[in-house]
Amino acid sequence: MPRYKRAQQPGGTFFFTVVTHRRRKLFYEMNNRLILKKAIMEVQSTHPFNIDAWVLLPEHLHCIWTLPEGDTDFSKRWGLIKAKFSKELSHPTTPVWQNRFWEHFIRDDRDLQTHLDYIHYNPVKHGLVESPRDWPSSTFYRYVQEGLYPLNWGEGVTFNSDDIFGE
């Protein structure tokens, strides 16, 4: 079995893709979204990190985190989040998550913008909405309020990128 080497950048900013087992559409249910939010907040209280961007789709999520200075252990945080979420579901014997997750170290401002765009355009890419502003489970409106996107950003365009995002 191959050994995967995770990126190690103390205090780094990382893009993640996390997928449910067999792409089960767990996050259509509001209760499951609330359970995930609670699990994340509990982990943040003991293992701090900043959520810079986020999108939650029915069977996967993408996000960007920044870890505290000197800290490299995002794997522990994801393990705790996945375990807490799984424990709260009504059928905990059924696998909930894919075993691994995709991570990418954000190298610079251009790389960050590419991944922010990908996160916020993702519901359109998957045919769930016509515009990023129509998807409530993302940080798109936070970025609109901060003046980093116009409200109509992403309408009528196709997101093209040669980058790999782990889907």
Helices and strands, with pairings:
Layout: E1 13-19, H1 30-46, E2 50-56, E3 60-66, H2 74-88, E4 102-105, H3 109-125, H4 140-145
Antiparallel strand pairs: 1-3, 1-4, 2-3
Description:
With about 170 residues, this protein is of the alpha+beta class. It has a domain of about 100 residues: Alpha-Beta Plaits (2-Layer Sandwich), CATH 3.30.70.1290. Helix content is about 35%, strand content about 15%. The protein is built from 4 helices and 4 strands; from the N terminus they run E-H-E-E-H-E-H-H. A 4-stranded antiparallel beta sheet has the order 2-3-1-4, with helices on one face. Helix 1 packs across helix 2. It is globular.
H/E element sequence: EHEEHEHH
Second rung of CATH, namely the architecture of the domain at 13-108: 2-Layer Sandwich
Measured between the Cα atoms of the first and last residue, the distance is: 21 Å
Low-confidence stretches: none
Q: What does the average pLDDT come to? A: 90
Number of helical elements: 4
Determine and state the CATH class of the domain at 13-108: Alpha Beta
Tell me the overall shape: globular
Structural class computed from helices and strand pairing: alpha+beta
**Can you count the beta strands?**
4
Share of β-strand residues: 5-15%
